[in-house]
Amino acid sequence: MQHSSFSSQIDRDLLGKFDSEILSRTPHVAGGTETGVVANPTPLVDLTDALSEGAKAEYGIRIDPKRVRVFGKLDSQIFGGSVKVRPAVEIIRDAIATGKLRSGQKIFEATSGNFGLALGMLRDLGLEAIVLVSRRLQGGVLDELKNEGVRSVNLDVDICPAPGLKVDPNLVVAKAAAASVREQLAQLGLDTAVFDKNRGDVEALLAKQDVISLAKLLARIYDGFCPEQYDNELNVRSHETTTAPEIDQQLKAHGYSLGDFRIITAFGTGGTSAGLAKYAQAKYRQKSVHVVFPLANQDVAGIRTRDKAVGLRFYQPELYGGEHEVDFEAARRLLRFFAGRGYGIGESGALALYSALQMINYGAGDKFVVMIADGLQKYLADLEVPVETSDPLEVNVEEANSKQPIYGEVLWTHAMFVPREEGIKLVAEALGCDKDKVKIATARDVQALITTEKIPAGINALLPKNKSKTLLVCMAGGTSLRVAEVLTKNGVGAQSLTGGIMNLSQTNNRQPEDLVQVATE
Q1: Closest by Cα among 140, 173, 196, 182 to 387
Q2: Rounded distance, CA 289 to CA 263, Å?
């Protein structure tokens, strides 16, 4: 990741906090060079079998999993919750590093949800975000914005001119919206006198429904900062220099080349599609990015229809391998299917997956990376989607015993101790399984997994080869819980036994030294 040179007005304390509390937890190129390995990658998960099953169950379409390969890039699992975290981190860090953003300033932005949620990461740094909402969002999105400490200003008003009056209806609505905005800003503690001096400009922008320019105006008059995600080149660069190389590296780890894959992404601001397309064209001399839009009369959260994308700065069809308008009502069936199986795939991800399915069905490709921009949770309040409840990361002995058949393996995970033969026997007896089912990860591999949040080959070899869960056991439950978190983040089903072997030793009157020993490898 590249950053601008420091300004003399840089808030160094804020920059340090940003790097330690946000940048360190999100995807970025290690060492700050474009050729480095990407740290904190989001999972690239093979969805081929699940898509094949869904295609058959929902549409009667048969696809051959041996011929087809579909990976989902699960940016729903990023720290901050969506693909918009990437440009938000790039833009905000650059703003701090160039002195454009300092402690105490407010951030104004036009957003339909995900970018606003990403700005919520800044609240612990003392930065307040105010987002302008130009249409009514689902209750789940507004709730999440509030929970993340992001203030919202609703620009929608329920008003229409009285019949027979010879007035411009847009002007009437603009004046009503301006009055509403003024009231909401006052409630947020902003000086309304500043607003009143610029009210004419505000009403003009509202009349044109130009929410993007309105965010810029409010940032200027209130001495704040506007990320300008729709016009900021860092939006594109974040995906060109981080997201694309990240996918490239992950495909290589799976034995593939990005040059053989089509990338499918929905269109929000256009930053993702433009950044990925520029990388693919520069490295592989290919137009491999396909952009998906809902039909013109359909409303998909955070996604623009093609007619509303035309004219935006980052709508660049000359870079694309194809553009596809897809019926979201048909894609909704796939959304329900994946949700019912516990996949965190939101509306735009379902639209992109359905587009991949169509291309496979019509022989337009057999290898795809589908961008899963966000998860499903924020849409549940308004979508009647049957969701499989996620299992907790911890289970007690009784729960684990009753669910023993679902565990493909029982895996010991500790960074210092390993079980003795008596310890293995005790675990097996407590869980009602054969002791051969209890595997032992090396302390070195456990430490590597916790430190890097990547699954070492040694642990990967011990995990079930089917999709069954792994029950994790350690000394007192702390290490195994952390391992469960990392495995789950990497798409592996795992649960930790509460209390570990120490709890078992107490209930069975056994001495810890008889059950475990210091690892020697």
Answers
A1: 140
A2: 5
What residues contact 408, with CB distance under 8 A and at least 6 apart? 463, 464, 465, 466, 468, 469, 470
Q: Which three-class secondary structure state does DSSP give residue 348? A: helix
Strands (E), 367-447: 367-372, 394-395, 407-412, 417-419, 438-440
Q: Are 202 and 214 in contact (CB under 8 A)?
A: yes
Token pair 């979508």 in the structure block, residue: 383
Residue 434: count other Cβ atoms within 10 Å of its Cβ: 9
Amino acid identity for residue 384 in this structure: E
164 has a pLDDT exceeding 50 = no
Cβ 114 vs Cβ 129: under 8 Å: no
Whether residue 87 contacts residue 234, with contact meaning beta carbons closer than 8 Å, is answered with yes
Q: Per-residue pLDDT tens for 324-364?
A: 999 999 999 999 898 887 787 889 999 999 999 999 999 99
What are the residues whose beta carbons fall under 8 Å from the beta carbon of 397, sequence distance 6 or more?
430, 431, 497, 498, 499, 503, 504, 507
Which DSSP symbol is given to 298?
-
User: How far is residue 131's CA from residue 122's CA, in Å, rounded to a whole number?
Assistant: 13
Q: Pairing relation of β-strands 407-412 and 438-440?
A: parallel
For residue 432, give both structure tokens. 């009602």
Query: Tokens 């905000």 appear where?
Result: 92
- Picking from 190-204, 265-279, 343-357, 389-403, which range would have the lowest pLDDT averaged per residue? 389-403
Counting beta carbons within 10 angstroms of the beta carbon of residue 165, is it exposed (0 to 12), middle (13 to 18) or buried (19 or more)?
A: exposed
